[in-house]
Amino acid sequence: MSPLPASIPALVRTRVRAAVRRPARLTPEEAEARTLLLRLCSLLLQYPDAELTTARPVLTAAVETLPPSPAAEDLASFTAWLASEEPDALERHYVEMFDLRRKSSLYLTYYLHGDTRRRGMALLTLNQRYKAAGWDTDGGELPDHLPVVLEFAALTGTGAGEAPLRQHRRGLELIHRALSDADSPYRHVLGALLTLLPPPTEADRAAVAQLVAEGPPNEDVGLDPYGTYGEGEFAPPGTFVPPIPAPPTRVPPRPTSCTEGPR
To answer: Binning pLDDT at 50, 70 and 90, where does residue 219 land?
Structure first.
């Protein structure tokens, strides 16, 4: 992922120096605003670590530069909340919404393929799409992590760049619904994103309702790790499973006396 910006001009740049293909139906100003909106969504959906919380004034100012639209209003509502919360409260809320709830996970292929063999191939295909466009992620996240998908869309444009978003529209709808049900301010970011996509069809609505009722597909695919993403080490689809969360870091207890210590 691209590092957080130190200024608004920096916010509209990426580390990958590739030309953004502008669709003919958008003016240069509209295309620039769309790109900025996608990058803002990508940044605002990342974990609120110290770097991001320090950049809150910059993010708020960047949102204020967007042309008036429902998406701009949604992001303004979110950044107002983001600026008002203490950093530790932001971190807790993020973990609760995106790490502890299956229906608002940010890993998009999960909603389409669940814990099945097909998900491993979907991740490989998505990574190949990035490389074919001349974009190489830093390997810090799986290729279906929503902030990564959004950054690719901002870089590449409304055609091929936004294709993964359109493909996973049903998952995005489910995340938005789950965040809305939880009254999470992150619903505003998903709401802003959904305004950029075509309206949902009846089939989309039915599929989202089924996801809500039944959850994503599921099958037993074994316990072998899938490999290290970012180094081209994807296991065969038959052995893929989602990564297991790392155990929490614990501070070792202090010695009970001055004679005790490491051995």
So the answer is: low
The residues, any chain, with a CB within 8 Å of residue 179's CB and separated by 6 or more, are 97, 104, 186, 187, 190
Tell me which DSSP letter residue 105 carries. -
Instruction: List CB contacts of 138: < 8 A, sequence separation 6 or more.
Output: 1, 230
pTM above 0.85, yes or no: no
C-beta separation of 11 from 56 below 8 A: no
- Helix segments in 85-142, DSSP class H: 87-94, 109-113, 117-132
User: pLDDT tier at 213 (50, 70, 90 boundaries)?
Assistant: confident
Coil, strand, or helix at residue 117? Answer: helix
From the list 107, 111, 195, the residue with the least C-alpha distance to 145 is 107
| Long-range CB contact pairs, 234-243, < 8 A, 24+ | 234/120, 234/123, 234/124, 234/127, 235/120, 236/120, 237/117, 237/118, 237/120, 237/121, 238/117, 239/120, 240/117, 240/119, 240/120, 240/121, 240/123, 241/115, 242/107, 242/110, 242/115, 242/119, 243/142
pLDDT digits (tens, 9 = 90+) for 120-144: 899 999 999 999 988 887 767 899 9
Q: Would you give the DSSP letter of residue 119?
A: H
Q: How far apart are CA 82 and CA 150, in angstroms?
A: 20
The whole-angstrom separation of Cα 62 and Cα 59 is 5
Whether the CB-CB separation of 219 and 115 falls below 8 Å is answered with yes
For 25-84, write each residue's pLDDT tens digit: 788 899 999 999 999 999 999 999 999 999 999 999 999 999 999 999 999 999 999 999
